[in-house]
Amino acid sequence: MVQMLLLLGALPLLASPAYARYQTGARISLFEASTTKEASALTNLDCDASKPSTSVGLQINDCLWGDYNLVNNFKITQYPKCANGHDAVALFYATTSCTGNPTFRSDKYMGDLEDKCLFGSSSEKWSMVFRCGNTETQAIERRRFMQSVPPPSTKKTFKAKPKAMDGIVAPYYSFDCSIYRPKEPTYLPADACLPLDKSHSLLIHEPAVCGDGRVALVNTYDDEECTESRGWLGTDAFSDAYYPSINKNCHTTNAGSMMFQCGKKEDMVMFKDLPEQKFKKVEQLRVIDNVRQVRPKPKFSSPIVAKPEKEVPIVDGHGSTSAIEKTYKKEGSTSRIGAQGGTLQPFYLDNCKNDRAVAPVIKPVDTCVWTFMWKSLRVKSPAVCPNGTQALFATYSRPGCKAAELTSIGKIPEAFTSGCGDINNIDSVAFICEGLPASEIGNKGSIGGLIKTLLIILLFVVLMIGLSILSCCLRGAAMMQQANLLWERISSLFGKKEGEIQL
Fold first, then answer.
1. SS3 for 300-365, per residue?
2. Quick one: which of 48, 200, 361, 493 has the most CB atoms within 10 Å?
3. Is residue 100 within 8 Å of residue 65, measured between CB atoms?
4. pLDDT tens for residues 314-328?
5. Does residue 62 contact residue 144 with C-beta atoms inside 8 Å?
6. d(Cα 250, Cα 234) in Å, to the nearest integer?
């Protein structure tokens, strides 16, 4: 009965458009590197299919970067979607690490970017990322950086001389820069000492560049004031291989502090004494919608303005869909639909055999689901986080969703979505957005799984008691029957007989 009620309550939620979609990635065509910083010839405004190009796939939250001008040589052939069905927000930057002030935001552009030749102007280096939900974060996970490699150019290109710039680094407590959520980067100028509180690893998003154009050396120290040197990070500091050995890489270290060193030791300042980091203004990239468009004056980041939002159904966390409303939102923000649970289809037998299937159940995000009584599982629809991104799918080897027993976390494996997931070695799962609360971790587990377990134990106890009573009754009846036969025999021996003389 409880499962039927859950199933009926889930019907409106299953009908929601958000459950018909999964988060999808982008497909991008890269054309020859541009030799100029802005478009001049109209014949170069089409990214013609006959021109040589390289096609790359890019997932949401991956940072694609290049060290050449991005002028009429970038085309998004497949635009990515968030788990809630909305378009992802494309953000471009004038750095190679998806940090700083954006030079372009798709949520401030009224047109469609798909199959459009980008851009009309560009800086000498760039990076871009697609985001769902929080578009203000600048955190990028390790191994999520991808260098743009366009086809060989038929024209002679010139490498711009590096300009002085701050370094960008993220310290981690893990040994391999890996945790569930990537850390926000720290902007560290050259010759500034950054205490690390005994960090175990460093992810260098972008090394600092000295005033003379050379890459700053990354020095680590045992103490927190950059006095007891441990040595340089990376390969030989004076070789051409030094920059690629530290750029976008994770470095294991137990350092107490670090510094991008350019000048003398006397030039060092403490990071805490520096003024608060502010992103510098950047010139905005231009999307050429019309070949007759005239280049406007340089435009800098404009203030946020309000614009009407598209008419879309508003889905609440209980799965009900309200009337279509027209609201106003701040330009640049993304809509929030509320967390939505994922739908699981469990089976008591292997290979998802339907003769012992369980009714589909909807499990909220950040909830531990015990699966030790099941043999196989399908995920009929993913869970969606409050910010619109698809929740991560975590599996555990024991009930209780303990971190020490985590076997996998990330995107939902294809076996669970298009096939049949074998869970003989998986005793609990969870859709994770913000992380499991303490009440969901350990032996307590899912309240639904606990209630089912208790009901099974109770049913077993009642059955055993009933069998014991029945056995006692049967034995008692047999003994009564034997007693009656014995009494009859005794009565027949001592009773009166016909013809006897009574004394």
1. CCCCCCEEECCCECCECCCCCECCCECCEEECCCCCCCCCECEEEEEECCHHHCHHHECCCEEECC
2. 361
3. no
4. 333 333 333 333 333
5. yes
6. 10
